[in-house]
Design goal:
Elements lengths: L12 H14 L2 E4 L20 E4 H12 L11 H10 L5
Antiparallel strand pairs: 1-2
Length: about 90
């Protein structure tokens, strides 16, 4: 689940994503926000929302790499990091 202007994150990090990410990683998979592992994200409040990518380690790594490439299909606005920065600044045009 990726956060975009049109589709904001709906799951809470503290009580929805973290327990699920913990179980996925204990089962041998991986859970990421596209940049860092979900369980490494600093919790800043119970209403905090995050992006969520989960699956096998190979699949999550592949998706994360694709999102970091220029001209990716997830928005065609550059890298995923640039897309997130544009969203935070409010300069993203849908």
């Amino acid at each position: 689940m990726l956060n975009t202007i049109a589709h904001p994150s709906r799951l809470s990090l503290l009580y929805e994503i973290c327990p699920l990410a913990f179980l996925i990683e204990k089962a041998g998979g991986s859970a990421s926000d596209g940049v860092i592992p979900v369980l490494d994200i600093k919790i800043e409040g119970y209403k905090q929302k995050v992006n969520f990518i989960a699956g096998s380690k190979e699949d999550v790594e592949y998706i994360s790499e694709e999102l970091q490439q220029e001209g990716n299909e997830s928005g065609k606005k550059g890298s995923y990091a640039q897309l997130l920065a544009m969203q935070k600044q409010g300069s993203f045009v849908v």
